[in-house]
Structures are given as C-alpha cells and as structure tokens.
C-alpha cells in the first residue's frame, strides 16, 4: 500500500501559508510591504481585535491590473522576479502573489484595486483560496485589502494565538518598524477605531511620533558613508534605554530585519555607557549593494545574511561609537574652554597706537571680555615691540604664574608669556592681575557648595542650576577616564612578573592572540610565543598588576570576534573600571566643603554624568524643574 501521498493544493496551500502567515502581524507586514512596492506614498492600516477579526490596508499605489487580479492570489505568482538570477539582486520588499496566496488560504479576503489607466476599480472576494464574488467598483487609484476571520479554517492554529491585546502589540511593533524603514511614506494606523500613529514624512518626524518628545529630544542623528556602504539613523544618548530590545530597529536596503551582527556592534559601541540589562534605543539604516546581502535566509525575509559581516560590524560600531563620543556629556561648572578671538592682530595693533598708560587697562579688559589664552600668547610675542619689558621689570608687586587661578584649560599659553619675555617669571602687573582675579572670583563665587547628603551625595548650585552628584560614581569616572586616556596615548607603565605567566591556547585562540599581540604590547603587556600553542607573558600594565590573568585572558579570548573590531583601549576597559572603583572616594566618606570644592574644580573638563558601569553620577535640576515639583508652575 502506498505511503506517500500527493497533497491537494487546498492542503499544501495551508501548509505553505504557515511559513509566511504566523499571526496578524505577519499579514500586516506582508500587505504594507506590497503597498510600498506599489509606490504608495500614503498607507492606512486599521485592525480590530488585534487583527483576528479584521485587518484593512488601503494605499494610493499603482494598483493591480484587472487581468492580474484573477491570478495574483495563486501560489508562486509575482511581479517582482522572472528568472533565477533576479534572486541575486532583490530590491523589492515582498512578492505580492506569494503573500496573497498564503493569506487567502487561511482567511476571508476582499481585494479591490484600480490602476491610473482604468476608469473604475475591480474587486474580488476569496474565501480560503476559493473565488467568490467579483465585479467593478468605484474607487481612487490604489489598492484596498480587507482580511477577515484569520485562521477561520485552521482552528488549531487560531487556538495558539495570543489574546487580542497581545496580538495588537505585535502589530504595533511591526508598524513601528515599517514606519522607520519608510519615513517618506505617510502612515495612519488605528486599533479598534483609535488612532495609534499618524505620521508626517521624514525620519525625524517619525521618531517624535513613535518615541514621543522626551525620548526624541535625546536621539542623536548620524550618517556615515564609507565606500559603497552607508550607515545612518538615530541612536539614543546614554540616558535613553529600555529593558528589552523592542525599541531597536534595523533596516537594510529599506527592509526591517533582525541581525545579531548589528545588535552586537551597537552594544559594543555603547560599551559601559549603559548598565547591565539595559538596552539602547536606535533606528539604524544600512544601504549596501543588493548582491552583498541575502534576504532569503527565511521565508518571512526577517533575517538577513551579509556577504562580509565583519565589515558591517565595523561600520556600524564606528558610526555609533563616534556619535556617542561626540555627545559625551559633562556638567561644566567652570567654563575653561578657550574661545577664538577674531582679529587678534587688530587688538595688538590698537595697543601699539595707545599710550602706555592705557595699555594695562586694554590688556585687562581683553582678558575679562574674552577670557582667551590666545590673547596672552599674542601679546607676549609683541612685548618687545611695545617695550613693555621695562615696564614689567619695574613692577613692585608681581604674581607668580604658577599660582594664577585656573581660568584656562591649562597654563601652557600663560607659561609661553614667561618664555617669550626671557627671564621674567611674572607676566602681569597688579592692575592686570587684580582684574583677572576679579573675573575668576565672579565665576568661582557662582559655584555654591551647599554640602553633602547622607555622606554620599554632593549638592551644588551653579548658574541657576542645582546639581546632585554621587561622589563615588563621579570620582570613579574621573579616575577611569584618566587611566583610559593614558592607555590610548600609550603612556602606560609596565609591571614585570616575578614568575612569567604561561597562556595555553587552542589553535583558534592561539591565532587570535597572535593577531592582537601588538595591541597587547601597546597597553603594557610583554608577550612572546613559547612553543606549541602557548605564550609566555613577562610583564603586565602596572595599573592591572593585581589582576587574575587566567580570568583576564579567558574573557579576552571568549570575546575575540567582537574585540577584533573594537578599539585597543576597549580590551581592558572592564579592568580599568575595577581599578578606578577601588581608588575612588567611597559612599559614606565625609567630605568638607573645601574638599568638595577641590574635587569639582580639579575636573577641568567637567563633572561626569555617569560612572564607568553606566550608573548616573549627576542629576541637574533647573529652577523651573523645582518650581514644577512644588506646583509653582504647571
């Protein structure tokens, strides 16, 4: 007796439908992508009961010819490809025939469509792949598809669907991805008669519509093109995160996809900017040649395979990391960044034409108005021409440059003043110095040290803002950044080991350590091959002299695929964080106001807003924020 059956199309259509139509969200995705492929600039989507009872998709695309309407729902029919080689460069989102064949097999479907060349539209009813009524219908150019009673003829599959609200959430997630992938299309999306999204065109507008104003204002734009690969979109700053990955959208050539390569690259780019189990918010678009990405990994085309995943990883990693680095935030309590003075030569020339009695006031005012070290350097070069050497030498009360207030990022330019006037150790007379001190004191007096809370939090007021600072997190990040900068600059001292450490590897690990040996050497390791599949390590970075080398190299080797694309300093960032943590001021350490002031003022580049582990280090409150809390303003 024969055991192999040739299935009827009514059966195999149901089976193949399951590969594409898993739930209402699948139907919405397929139909909307078909609308986009048809050139629609406006798409309306509405669902009822999570899409289980009804899904309606209306577009203003090119429509379907009447002749095609009678075959578009059949299996293996499509307008997107004609031959096998077309699969190598798929530029469309879906195959309309494939999707409709799968959907009509498990639902009651009404299709109405009109092309620009037709006077009227044509409608067709299909009930579980069975043709129903058809005829002409009045409508605008475009297509309308109504899907009712999904899985009505496959009750087992319908039984395993989630409750309507859960299915609605899945549809909303799909719509979010479609909106981000197609920002030039105007979307209207509603559930049970209530509008959820009503977008304007443009990615930025879509960001505001979906994420809301609070998050959208913290999204950072980027756009990097290298060769034939473009990576662009938005990533949230370090204060924006979720506890799942639902707010992460990856778009490749206009198609929303899932990619562990891209997700891992983004996660590594954020590094320790976010705490454990906190996930960044992003919308990342990648444009690359169609033949360098395979979209046919899965029937639903959700997963993709890159021809060169390492290259994609690198492009995404650097695009996101550079964007975040450019936006690194610190609370600048002393604005020490020099500002460029235009027409510096004119300042000097005006001094040359001034009486000696006016020179002091002019120089002082230039500093007070501009607060720019370039003025000092420029004037110093002209001291001899102005014959100010003699004037300065005759001053009775002079101020040591080394004791000058730190108005600027450093004293380098001010020291140039001293160098340029030979043996003179003091740069300005009493009048200039008094005005400089006044300028500094005005800035300094604005910083009010209000004290400590619970011997853990510092409370300050500066320029109409209140700052609450976690003393440990703030100091920890300050030390961490200094250590990391030394590593990036190659300024790391070595600690020889009394007994060399032997690192045993398997073949792939051995090759990887060999590939990064130069990086390891630059950050302070002395390492060489020791025969077989092993290495001998003679010295380690002094700042890591107490590390467990077994654990350290186990971590490095286990993450080799990721670290191959990361910066050198990233190799030991976690160890740096631990080192900084041990040396930092602890929660519970009682500090005097002078100690607090010294700590803050020494952070010339600003007070960090986050510790190396991603915890907040600073909260900034405006007067308006406090007024809102106390209901003074609404």
Write the layout of secondary structure elements.
Layout: H1 9-20, H2 24-37, E1 42-48, E2 54-59, H3 66-69, H4 96-105, E3 108-114, E4 121-127, E5 130-137, E6 142-148, H5 155-159, H6 164-181, E7 186-191, E8 194-198, H7 203-211, H8 213-216, E9 219-226, E10 229-236, E11 248-252, E12 255-257, H9 260-270, E13 282-287, E14 293-294, E15 305-306, H10 309-326, E16 330-331, H11 344-352, H12 356-370, H13 373-381, H14 383-386, H15 388-394, H16 412-420, H17 430-446, E17 448-453, E18 457-462, E19 465-470, H18 471-488, E20 494-504, H19 507-515, H20 517-522, E21 526-529, E22 534-541, H21 549-558, H22 560-563, H23 573-583, H24 593-602, E23 607-608, E24 618-622, H25 623-629
Parallel strand pairs: 1-7, 11-13
Antiparallel strand pairs: 1-2, 2-6, 3-4, 3-6, 4-5, 7-8, 9-10, 10-13, 11-12, 14-15, 16-23, 17-18, 18-19, 19-24, 20-22, 21-22
Main attributes of the structure:
Heat Shock Protein 90; alpha+beta; Ribosomal Protein S5, domain 2; five-stranded mixed β-sheet; 39% helix; 4 domains; eight-stranded mixed β-sheet; 25 helices; 634 residues
Describe the overall structure:
The protein is α+β, with helices and mostly antiparallel strands and 634 residues long. It is 39% helix and 22% strand. It contains 25 helices and 24 strands. The strands form six sheets. An eight-stranded mixed β-sheet has the order 5-4-3-6-2-1-7-8, covered by helices on one side. The longest helix has 18 residues, at 164-181.
